[in-house]
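yo

u said u wanted the structure for the complex thing, so here. seqs first:
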Amino acid sequence: MKKSLVDGLIKYLLLPMVGAGCVVVLWAVASSSVATSLPSPLKTWEVSKPYILSPWEKRGELDQGILHFTWYSLIRVAKGYALAVALGTPIGLLLGMSKGFTNTFDPIIQVLRPVSPLAWLPLGLVLFHKPEPAGIFTIAMCSMWPTVMNTALGVRSIPQDYINVARVLKLSPYKTLVKVTIPAALPYMFTGFRLSLGIAWLVIVAAEMLTGAPGVGGFLWQEYNALIYEHIILCILTIGIVGFVLDRLMSLVERRFKAA
Amino acid sequence: MAFIELSGVCKGYGRAGQRTAVLEDVNLSIEQGELVSIVGYSGAGKTTLVSLMAGLSFPDKGTVFVGGKPVTGPSPERGVVFQNYSLLPWLSVLENVQLAVDQVFPKLSKETRRARAMKFVEMVNLGPAANKRPRELSGGMRQRVSVARALSMEPELLLLDEPFGALDALTRGVLQGELQRISQESGKTMLLITNDVDEGILLSDRIIPLGAGPRASLGPATVVDIERPRERKALNHDPRFRAIRLGVLEYLLESGKQKRAEREAERARVEQAKPSPSGAQEPTQIAEVSP
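structre next:
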């Protein structure tokens, strides 16, 4: 009992901290030797302190605590992600259920899938004339594909037994969808949802950089232009940590559905 | 016309050209209220036979009639107990049964439907487990749920596809007893598919062997004229039981031997037709070995 606790502490706390420490040391060495324009860890902390210690403060539109910026970004991501799931799930269901639909639309989906957010954003600006909806459009266009693909895979992997049950009971197409197809595909769908969220968060920086909207990505770009390089590192770390937390949360939800 | 009539049924799988015929010229008639079992090798096409009668697939040739009508598709009137239970894992025992009840009796009130589902869950002695999920149940319990679901639809015919095949011998014995009771109480027409000759004789009015595949067809039916209820232990000493058992086993073994001989003859013919395959291979092997 006691031993397993110690083992756990070493495995999940001590070793990760050693890993992070190594990177910080490397960073410090690099900033004092080869890459002198890179701010040192200590300097980064000094300059970032007001943003971290009072994370909710709003001193001006472009000068806010880091959590406030993160909040803006999260709201934006939530909107784009909701749109992605709302579009991606039905498309995935159709792909999984209908061979004809797959033959018709799969090729074009495969073509659109690898397009970068940097390419979607200008199109969004052209379409919506405003940066906010353009950003949301970009997030949705980039992040819906894992949901589409995994939902389709989930539907295609439904065991024949379940389909036979639906057929013997003569369930209507709607009832089959609600009572058999969706519950059976749900674990796959959640994998898709988790991957989509990861991409949505990845896209946020690009979207905010190009539109100058307030958020972590916008802040990052603005501080680059203001030559405050310490804040670039602050933003990178924030983006990473938030992304990590989102992924953990989603995988908790996902595991719940896998077990059921 | 009997309640179930299969005449000249052929069924194969695979694309045209390399199609393997599973069933060939299967003829079967079952009267209303009869419990008939079909015994055969695994892979002989027993499940194919069930899906033809269930309407999950259709014969290439021949006709399948149930209740005087040709089978045009699956229907709750023909309840199926699948080999691997086929319960929906996200529904509880009661919900699995109720899905069937809701579907077949949409006009009944919600409470009546629920009570009805519960009645069938209790009938297979699963009342205390009604709210459990299938994964919390043993194989035997899952198969009981599957039986309850099939019966709750009040089907005119119950198709049981190796229902106890995946169970241990003891559980198997218990469920055989339950099936015997249910069949006597309900008087339903049942078709039991099994690979266990003893099980077939124990439960049925008539037992029919399904010959070895490919191109399997049904052997002669034997009437099991042993009074019910039948006890497995007592049955072992019954000369009638032994005689039937011997007859069915002999038919199966004989048909297996015959199919093997056919396969060998076929292989020999194919080998002969090939232009000396051994002669063509030897030089390449030597070439590989030499440095």
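Residues 2-38 of chain A form one domain. Residues 32 and 151 of chain A are 50 Å apart (CA to CA).
cya
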